[in-house]
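Contributing: when you submit paired examples, paste them exactly as shown. First protein:
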Amino acid sequence: MVFFRQQQSRLRELRRSPRFEVHYPAFFDPCDGSSLQNCMISDISAGGARLTVSNGVEMPGEFLLLFQRRCRIIRRDERQVGVMFLKG
């Protein structure tokens, strides 16, 4: 177990951008005319994310990831706003 944790931390250091653990509900669209499927974004970075899907859900090689978060504006200027994600 300790060996695995040491290897895992070394792998994380090699990533180009830091990952942040999150638990965002999301959907993926297979883009083939079939319906949206539920998933959970488990962690996210500037370059990618780790998704958790239900057992038996088939994932195509490429898809559209959709997620929404309820937000509150915490600052704004002429052309930009800063938002805070709200829980729930």
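Second protein:
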Amino acid sequence: MAEQGWRELTPKTMPALLSVVDCGDGCIRELTLRSTYGPDAAQSASVVVDVQRAFQPGWVQLTIELSGLVHRKIVDINTFSWVMLDQPQVVRDDAGLLHLDLDPTGDIRTPDDMAQHSHVYLAARELRWRLDPLPAS
């Protein structure tokens, strides 16, 4: 995967992401969890979401990479749990961990609220994002 186009995702950089995409009605296309084993064992994840461009027609693919994955909660409730009804939320806790809620309900919540109420919630040491054209059908 090319490194070009990756941008840091934090609570401070979230407005930059939301200035170019509208995630409401977006659809989570893929969620991949990866684990390595051994002395340098680590967990990471990637989420691919089809989203609309902000203020212009068309859809793009948003990829969010999470490195140093610490927590995750993925609940399939056999409804529209993979359709985003609102913009994602990112919160940094006191330890510096970034909490990503892809199923927010209203105002920005605490990491504890995210872990309890969200259907798609991940927490990691680093987050980054990029946009790509949608793959051909």
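If you have annotations for the second protein, write them as plain sentences, like these:
The radius of gyration is 14 Å.
The helical segments are 14-18, 111-117.
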